[in-house]
Design brief:
Layout: H1 2-11, E1 26-37, E2 41-45, E3 50-63, E4 66-70, E5 75-80, E6 86-96, E7 101-111, E8 116-124, E9 138-144, E10 150-159
Antiparallel strand pairs: 1-3, 1-10, 2-3, 3-4, 3-5, 4-6, 5-6, 6-7, 7-8, 8-9, 9-10
Length: 160
C-alpha cells in the first residue's frame, strides 16, 4: 500500500502545468440587471435535497448597447444539496427598450462559507442586433440588495 501511495505521489503533478503558454481569458462587464423577487416558495425535501423557487417579478437592466426591463414570470429554482451547496437554475426574460425579447437561462452555485455565488448565464436572443449574446460564454455574479426584494446580476463576457 505504501508503495502504491508513493507511486501516485510521484506521478501526480504538484501543480497544473500547461503543455504550452496559454493566455488567461479576461472578463468584461457587459450587462447589469436589478431583478425584483418575491419571497421563496418552499417545495420541501425531494429526491436530491431540499427544493424551493423564487418568483421573478420584474426589474431593469442596462449594458453595452442594451437596456430594458426584466419581465415578470420567471423564477429561480433552487436545490439545497446534502453537501451544503445550493444549485441555482433561473429562467427569465428580458425585453429591450426597442422591443426585442431575450430569454436568459442562468445556472450557478452558491456556497455559504466562504461566500460564493456565481452563475453561467446563457442567452437566447433573436437574430439581429442582440444575437452577439448567443455567441459568447458569460460568467455572472449575483449580489443580494440590502433589505431584500431584489438581487443585482452582473454579467461578464469571457474574452480570449
Amino acid at each position: 500500500m505504501k508503495y502504491l501511495l508513493l507511486c501516485l505521489m510521484l506521478l501526480w503533478p504538484a501543480s497544473v502545468q500547461a503543455y504550452e503558454a496559454v493566455p488567461s481569458p479576461s472578463l468584461r462587464l457587459v450587462l447589469q440587471a436589478r431583478v425584483t423577487i418575491s419571497p421563496a416558495v418552499e417545495v420541501g425535501d425531494s429526491d436530491h435535497g431540499k427544493r424551493r423557487f423564487i418568483p421573478i417579478t420584474g426589474g431593469s437592466f442596462t449594458g453595452e448597447g442594451i437596456k430594458g426591463e426584466v419581465l415578470a414570470g420567471g423564477a429561480d429554482w433552487q436545490l439545497d444539496r446534502p453537501d451544503g451547496v445550493r444549485e441555482l437554475d433561473a429562467l427569465y426574460s428580458l425585453r429591450t427598450d426597442d422591443g426585442a425579447v431575450i430569454i436568459v437561462h442562468n445556472k450557478g452555485l452558491s456556497v455559504p462559507d466562504p461566500r460564493y455565488l456565481m452563475t453561467i448565464p446563457a442567452f437566447h436572443a433573436p437574430a439581429g442586433k442582440y444575437e452577439w449574446l448567443n455567441r459568447r460564454v458569460f460568467v455572472g455574479r449575483v449580489s443580494p440588495v440590502p433589505g431584500g426584494g431584489a438581487v443585482i446580476i452582473s454579467v461578464f463576457a469571457a474574452e480570449g
